[in-house]
Design goal:
The chain is 74% helix and 7% strand. With 258 residues, it is mainly alpha-helical. It has one domain (14-240). It starts with a strand and ends in a 5-residue tail after the last helix.
């Protein structure tokens, strides 16, 4: 068995990964709320942006946390195509969740479907990302902890969607994103607690790329995208604000109002 360390850089990687999960969640949930106030292509565009944000956030969280993961006696590498696929899956599956909320006619059913799908998306991304791991040994899992990790993701994702869509105000949005960040982080470390590694005495050359060669640059790029998009969404007017602007412009242009 290989000795695992999840905190090779201390609390740096867990804290940064949690922040990234919260940023992606806050942006994604905010876009979902904006979508419900829009119609036509605007609603679709907001939902797509939300799915990309949540997917990017949970992927970045996972692999930033994995920068602090090490196993004694072996180096770690990552299969590049599988790693990219885990990012695509995260965006697509969470996209199904936010679209279920955005276009569902019954709120309770939409939240249930959206939370289930988003939670499963988080889990799929995690375990697909772990399948991309290459080391001198084999990775196994404790099934009860795997099931628990998926349940944590589903329950917390559902709670975050409910909070974002039900409770109004900036504090509610911040609280929902913190809950979603807890969901992703808790799911990750519960899933990692399920891992056991059996070392292989053979020392064949490992394929794939190291974390610093591939994971770190991509995580930095996605993190920059999330922060910039968050600033854009925060500064862009809501549907209610645009209506107020249009009403004010109409009053200014109406001679009777002068």
């Amino acid at each position: 068995m290989g000795d695992m360390n999840h905190f090779s850089f201390g609390w740096l990687t867990p804290v940064i990964s949690y922040v990234m999960a919260c940023v992606g969640s806050a942006l994604g949930l905010r876009c979902t709320v904006r979508a419900l106030a829009a119609t036509g292509s605007a609603r679709r565009n907001w939902l797509v942006t939300g799915a990309v944000a949540i997917g990017s956030g949970i992927w970045t969280m996972h692999f930033v946390a994995m920068l602090g993961f090490s196993v004694s006696g072996t180096e770690l590498r990552y299969d590049v195509p599988l790693t990219v696929l885990s990012l695509v899956v995260a965006m697509l599956v969470t996209g199904l969740g936010v679209f279920a909320v955005g276009y569902g006619r019954h709120r309770s059913r939409s939240l249930a479907v959206g939370g289930l799908t988003t939670g499963v998306g988080v889990a799929c991304m995690h375990y697909l990302g772990m399948a991309a791991l290459r080391l001198h040994g084999s990775v196994g899992y404790d099934p009860p902890l795997v099931v628990l990790s998926v349940l944590i993701a589903v329950v917390a994702a559902t709670a975050a969607l409910w909070a974002a869509l039900t409770v109004r105000g900036g504090a509610a949005a911040a609280g929902a994103s913190l809950v979603m960040g807890v969901a992703v982080s808790s799911m990750h470390y519960t899933g990692m607690a399920a891992v056991h590694i059996r070392m292989d005495p053979a020392r064949a050359a490992l394929g794939g790329a190291t974390a610093m060669q591939f994971i770190f640059p991509l995580a930095v790029g996605l993190g920059s995208f999330l922060f910039l998009t968050s600033a854009f969404v925060a500064l862009s007017p809501t549907a209610r604000e645009r209506a107020a602007y249009a009403s004010a412009d109409g009053l200014r242009g109406d001679p009777a109002s002068v």
